[in-house]
Amino acid sequence: MSRQLRIEYPGAVYHVYARGNARQNIFLDNEDRLSFLAILAGAEEDHNFVCHADCLMDNHYHLELETPDGNLSKCMKALNAGYAQAFNRRHGRVGKLFQGRYGAKLVQKEAYLLSLCRYIVLNPVRAGMVEDPAHYRWSSYRATAGLEEPHPARSVGWVLSQFSGDIIAARLEYADFVRAEVDPKRPDEGMFVVGNREFAEQRIREAGSPEDWPESPRRQKFTHRPPLTEILHDANRDCGVAEAVLRYGYSQAEVAEVINLKKSRVSQIICKARED
Q1: Rounded (5°) CA angle 61-64-65
Q2: Which residue did the predictor score with more confidence, 121 or 201?
Q3: Segment 80-111, tens digit of pLDDT
Q4: Which of 114, 153, 215, 236 has its CA 20 to 30 A from that of 169?
């Protein structure tokens, strides 16, 4: 099975999530949730990362993580492996706790972090567990809104600094921001890089060419590619065809349909481009 592409660099921010194997619960009681937060805090200290937002549901979790050292894989190995071992030991279980590899979407901090923070803490509201995020203990909302002291695993300073320099005003504005859209669309749906086009293209370039990503699904490699009509319009026909297929991953059938060519002719153009 293909694996999700990871782009790691110092200062990167991610929306990270993981679900229980076969959708089983990964938190059976509040002791499990406290254990997870303790392990998260320990992993943060050992591997130098920051959690800006979190929500622990029953069979999955969401985290908003910033990695000053560009070491997401090490951070997540410490967290997920550490929690799975503690969970299995406590409940007398063996085997996998999580369903496959964790998910991680790279996020442009300044433009999208706040909207993702809101999406994360509203999970229990969308699930019908509570009517107000303030009524759910197991997310970062209460700490960020000033309703309780932050757990050592939670860092609320950057989020609040985006609203006001006054801590009281910042907490109130944050609460208003979250409640302003109770059912927000997930900002990173269908993407693995969440940001404007310049940000996305820069990070994808730094990750190398698509041919160097054998573990990454095709749809992830080319999430931010330009429209096919734009590629074919800005170049002569054969060059445009080759660029669309070889650089941006469009299928030969898609190209043939747009420029009204037979697929066999498109195939010939691609073969010649590869030879050149």
Answers
A1: 115
A2: 121
A3: 999 999 999 999 999 999 998 899 988 888 87
A4: 153
Residue matched to tokens 């000033």: 146
**What is the reported pTM?**
0.72
Check: CB of residue 41 under 8 Å from CB of residue 140.
no
From CA 14, how far away is CA 1, in angstroms rounded?
Answer: 23
Per-residue CA distances from 12 to 114, 124, 161, 166, 260 (Å): 15, 27, 19, 27, 43
Tokens of 85: 């071992």
Which tens digits make up the pLDDT trace of 150-184? 999 999 999 999 999 999 999 999 999 999 887 66
pLDDT of the residue at 276: 58
pLDDT at position 215 = 44
Residue 139 has what DSSP assignment?
Answer: B
> What would you report as the CA-atom Rg of the chain, rounded to the nearest whole angstrom?
22
Sheet with 60-67, edge to edge strand ranges: 50-56, 60-67, 12-19, 103-107, 193-194
Give helix 109-121 / helix 167-179 axis angle, nearest 10°. 70
CB 145 within 8 A of CB 175: yes
Torsion on CA atoms 67, 72, 75, 78, rounded to nearest 10: 170
Helices (H), the chain: 30-47, 72-91, 109-121, 123-126, 141-144, 157-161, 167-179, 197-206, 218-221, 228-233, 237-242, 252-259, 263-275
Report the C-alpha gap between 222 and 212 in whole angstroms: 13
